[in-house]
Amino acid sequence: MTTGYVFHPEYLWHDTGTSAGLLPADPRAGVQPAVHVENPEAKRRVHELIHASGLLGELTVIEPRRATVEELQRVHTDAYIQHVKAQSDLRGGGGDAGDGFSPVGRGSYDIARLAAGGLIELVTAAAQGDITNGYALVRPPGHHATADQGMGFCLFNSIAVAARHAQTELGLARVAVVDWDAHHGNGTQAIFYDDPSVLTISVHQAGCFPPDSGWTHENGTGVGTGYAVNVPLPPGSGHAAYLHAMQQVVLPALDRFAPDLILLANGFDAGVFDPLARQMLTAASFRDMTRLLVGAAERLCHGRLIAAHEGGYSPFYTPFCALAFLEELAGTTTHVTDPLAAVVAGYAAEPLTPQQEAVIEEAAQLLPHIQTTVAAT
Ligand code: 3YP
Ligand code: ZN
Predict the structure, then answer these.
(1) If you measure from the C-alpha of residue 35 to the centroid of ligand 1, how many angstroms do you get, rounded to a whole number?
(2) What per-residue confidence (pLDDT) applies to 21?
């Protein structure tokens, strides 16, 4: 068993500019321009820890390439692709991909294509049997991007591009997307909303971002009905709630669907120190959740589990969450342990609440819609 790893310095060069945290800097708003919250720091430190821990030496490093326009067009409209390119060509950057929350730095069009292409290369290596599973540590993120709009820091939906590539070029008919980023995977959901060949499952903080998105009743449409699954956990949910959601919803949904490939929108912003959500996961939570998902992939699709980095904004804690994830993916451990384990123990011990249990049960009730379908993309 081999674990693939995609990283590239250009991922750190995606320039989100100065900001008052989330929005572009505007002194007229009364806030000093400072660093944008989606900046290279947390991801750089993830890569550094993967290297410094010795784990990098046990991985199969795979070189990314830029997704072609044709590959992007399987998911995005021509007009949107051209819009991102035009914003990226602006002198000094400063453009936006759609919602005002999605900065496009100078050259970011090419970097976003390198992110999507990194996922394509991992999925291809898995389909060929060169690797069992893999992790692409990419920027910019992708799971909010719809066919025709960037949203929430996302330019191109790399996971969606990789899913379509797997179906059309690699003969993998059924693709499941699991999204445990703290924010709703609305873009991926929207792209596949009427498609029973791609099952999307998002576990996220209820009503966080996008606003009013990701409720349990968002279940797919037409022949895709049942093939979108949402678990909107209340703010303050932690280890117990997420593990219960995995056991009661994510794993049973995957078992019913029997995917040929599992893609993971791998955000770490449900981590307890994250500034952009209010969930309480620890590095151990990500390790345990990963163990369950690796087990499902081994049971259902020859271990084929390919993860794309999404959110995760704590520069000091995201690296330990990501290392725990990647150790578990690779089926190994390093000498590095979570230095904050004792500090977060109290959060991790928080028991399941009736509200959390109720929403998980509500999502579980909808699973019988899911069948092992034949692809109709
Ligand atoms: C986008 C604007 C406000 C919240 C933010 C969420 C970005 C993210 O990590 N999405 O997964
Ligand atoms: Zn997020």
Answers:
(1) 15
(2) 83
The answer to whether the bond into 140 is cis (omega within 30° of 0) is yes
pLDDT value of residue 359: 98
Contacts of 243 (CB under 8 A, 6+ apart): 285, 288, 289, 292
Looking at the annotation, which residues are catalytic? 144
Tokens at residue 205, please? Answer: 């903080």
What's the rounded Cα separation, in Å, for the pair 245 and 180? 10
208 Cα–ligand 1 center, Å? 8
Residue 49 has which token pair? 């820890």
Decide: residue 155, CB within 10 A, 0-12 exposed, 13-18 middle, 19+ buried: buried
Q: Which of 154, 209, 310 to mutate to test the pocket of ligand 1 (most atoms within 8 A of CB)?
A: 209
- Return all residues near 282 (Cβ < 8 A) that are at least 6 apart: 238, 239, 271, 272, 321, 338, 340, 341, 344, 347, 348
Bond prior to 210 in cis (omega within 30° of 0): yes
Task: Name the DSSP class of 274.
Answer: -
Q: Which ligand has its closest atom nearest to the C-alpha of 143? A: 1
Q: Phi first, then psi: what are they for 352, rounded to 5°? A: -60, 135
Which atom from ligand 1 is nearest to the alpha carbon of 311? Answer: 9
Question: Is the pLDDT at 23 greater than 90, yes or no?
Answer: no
Work out the mean pLDDT of the chain and round it to a whole number: 96
Q: Where are the alpha helices (DSSP H) in the chain?
A: 9-13, 40-52, 69-73, 78-89, 108-128, 158-170, 186-191, 239-245, 251-257, 283-300, 318-330, 341-348, 354-365
Does ligand 1 come within 6 angstroms of the Cβ of 185?
Answer: no
